[in-house]
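Service request form, structural biology core

Requester: graduate student, group of Dr. S.
Request type: structure prediction, single chain
Budget code: on file
Notes: please return the result as structure tokens.

Sequence provided:
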Amino acid sequence: MSQSLVKNSQPHPMQGMAAVTTQQLRKLCEIQSLSVEPENSAFLTEVRNLAAQAEECIAEQEARIHHLESLTSTDELTGLLNRRGFMDGLNRALQSARRYEEEGVLSFIDLDGFKTINDTYGHPAGDMVLRRVGELLLSNIRKTDLVARLGGDEYAVLFIHAVKQVGRKRAEILRHILNNSTLTYGDASIPIRASIGSADYNGWSLPEELLRKADRAMYRQKHRRARNLSLISQRDN
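Core staff response, request fulfilled:
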């Protein structure tokens, strides 16, 4: 997965202290070994072994801490950022935009007819659709962009360092990719359909308001699409 899931995580103070202590033990052993008496060599060897064990234990603890931290910002089903992780990234992007006068675009994505997929094929099929959408989004953005599953069948993409025209064009490309994709589930071919709404941001944008703007734009597109489909159906009849 190219996208970093956990950023700017700070190590626990005790981790650093413990690491320094084991390093000091090793250094002390090296110094003492230069003039060690034969009867003390076994003691120094034991100290070195203890220091090595302590370093291994610290490394395991740091790995567990990193894993637990990633769980707080990662969607378990898709491996994308969750709402919390996305909001953290959005806040960082807005701070950078304020400092360096940058622009960007936030796109809000909602799947169309997802309840029907669950009702027709079952929740396992629905989960596969959600994962497939995550894969499609992640594989069609830049490494500097952010993508998240906010919950249910809602996703968000943050096009960082993108002027309005460029960001909205990328969002339209994503909409085209999603709406021309299918998922094979057993003998069935399940079409993926999605509506996308976008909102531009700058250094003075507020995160929650930006999300609301993109959400409203998405619903406008969803309603237009439903109305167009209804007109086509009436015409065909």
